[in-house]
Amino acid sequence: MVFRFYARKQVLILKSDEYFTGPAEVLRQTCSFLGIPEWQPETFPRLNEGNYAGMKAETKRFLEDYFADHNQRLYQLIGRNFGW
């Protein structure tokens, strides 16, 4: 685990969905975390974007159930709930 080698305050954990919906804010947060001047490109192009069919409801339920305990441990470890 990364926290065996780095203090929690040295690790920034981001949710990719937040970057996709608000890249400027996530970049601002990242610059602040790193202690560097804020910078922003003119645009935030979306690269390698795919178009995927929806997941079957039964598959989604199975995965949510299977990973529920793992996700809870992760949320407790990092102090943030990603809502998975």
Gist?
The protein has 84 residues and is mainly alpha-helical. The protein has helices at residues 16-21, 23-34, 57-78. 48% of the residues lie in helices and 0% in strands.
How would you describe the overall organization of this protein?
The protein is an all-alpha fold. It has helices spanning 16-21, 23-34, 57-78. The mean pLDDT is 93.
Give the topology, please.
Blueprint: H1 16-21, H2 23-34, H3 57-78
Which descriptors would you attach to this protein?
single chain; 84 residues; 3 helices; mainly alpha
Main beta-sheet annotation: none
Residues in β-strands, percent = under 5%
For the residues shown, what is the average pLDDT? 93
Number of strands: 0
Question: What is the radius of gyration?
Answer: 16 Å
Oligomer: single chain
- Rounded to the nearest angstrom, the distance between the terminal CA atoms is 20 Å
N-to-C series of helices and strands = HHH
